[in-house]
Amino acid sequence: MSQSLDIDLLRSFVAIAETGALGRAAARVARTPSALSMQMQRLEGVVGQPLLHRTGRGVVLTAAGERLLAHAGELLRRHDEALAELRGEALAGVLRLGCPDDYASAFLPALLQGFARLHPRVQLEVVCAPTPRLRELLARHAVELALVSVREDAAGADAIRLEPLVWVAQRGFPASAEDPLPLALGAADSLDHALPRAALDAAGRAYRIAYASSSLGGLVAMARSGQAVTVLTRAAVPDDLQVVAAGLPALPRVAIVVAFDRDRPAAPAVAFAEHVRRVLPAA
Known about the structure:
The chain is an alpha/beta fold. The chain has helices at about 5-20, 20-30, 35-45, 65-85, 100-105, 110-120, 130-140, 150-155, 190-205, 215-225, 265-280, and strands at about 50-55, 60, 95-100, 120-130, 145-150, 160-170, 180-185, 205-210, 230-235, 240-245, 255-260. It folds into 3 domains: about 5-85, Winged helix-like DNA-binding domain superfamily/Winged helix DNA-binding domain (Arc Repressor Mutant, subunit A), CATH 1.10.10.10; about 95-150 and about 260-280, D-Maltodextrin-Binding Protein, domain 2 (3-Layer(aba) Sandwich), CATH 3.40.190.10; about 165-255, D-Maltodextrin-Binding Protein, domain 2 (3-Layer(aba) Sandwich), CATH 3.40.190.10. It contains 11 helices and 11 strands. Strands 3, 4, 5, 6, 7, 8, 9, 10 and 11 form a 9-stranded mixed sheet that branches. It has a two-stranded antiparallel ribbon with strand order 1-2. A hairpin with a 2-residue loop joins strand 1 and strand 2. The longest helix is centred in the first third of the chain and has 24 residues, at about 65-85. The radius of gyration is 22 Å and the shape is globular. About 30% of the residues are buried.
């Protein structure tokens, strides 16, 4: 038996690791679940130890599987780049992508720089807007893919990162003493507006909307002014503001997922999505 790491086997292994289920992984790589299972048996034979553990809720990686996954993405990337270059198929064109402001400030610079190094002939055009507006842009094909927020329980295997929502205020702001609590929240149809209000309602805490806007800068400005508490993703909290926990109910996490504007996205969009999944830290 060959002792080399076959690229097709690695591609199927990564699909299983990312989806957590043979059925979904099989659809991604255009194979049957039984064929995928046979591939994994072959790969386990090459590495000489189990890589996957099947549970009632799907498939999880063994310790050896986690170690292999750390190498597999890089091996696949280098393989695909080399093949595309030799075939004269290096990615080119314009890629229009969307991203919420909070993710843009926390993650987008590194993502864009890394993708530009890998695919210098792809011209990137970025739109920053709240998730509901990005969904509208996707529906109109005004952007080709977007990083969007969804409820954690709705993301499933598509979740790339789970990001906590947190209460944020000026340092020393007496949130526990404010009654009703003044809030600066995002757009009314966004998760960072609906989820905080639901948490306060469930806790029986009175509040008032002092400021509502889809502008991250506006929300941060209100918090800095000491006039209101706002809600941000944890990664987007500026250093000069504080996360407030005392006297306020806990907030849920939201999941970051990639959404496309069509069922068969263009190659640059697929490449950027794979880059995000590979580079964006999971937590």
